[in-house]
Amino acid sequence: MNKSQKQRIIVFVGHPLEEELADFEELGIRLRRNAVNIDVINFANPGNVPKLTALVNAANDGSMSHFLDVPLGVSMITDVLISSPIMMYDNGGGDDAAMNMGNANMEGVVNNNNASDMNQFGAVNAELDPELAMALKMSLEEERNRQKEEKGDSNDTPAN
Fold this sequence. Notes:
Layout: E1 7-13, H1 21-33, E2 36-43, H2 49-59, E3 66-70, H3 77-82, H4 96-101, H5 112-119, H6 130-156
Parallel strand pairs: 1-2, 2-3
């Protein structure tokens, strides 16, 4: 949630980038001059990392822009995204150490103030969106009941 209502661009990069490093630095400087924060998520393209890091570093004004590199082989991208500074609610990101890193890899960073709110329903803050949280809770309960019934049916079947 963007409480301060500052301009923010979120970029998902899934292909190799052909532009030069200087072009990314220039774009980052323009974004910083116009007070636009940028979050960049790079999917499985290690060759993009220096260019995108240069973009985020040039645009970074007060540690409000972030870079996330999702390495090859990650099957659940959402797990990496949820634990990154990009998805944190307070002050536009995670804690200062994570923002200064500029790159939240697989370990991720969790802001302790929001960890319990976000983890209960998979990054949904129940206080901010109670209807969505209730729908997720009901869905989880239905799925658990379905799995229990399925397990009960399989236990009732005699083995040959």
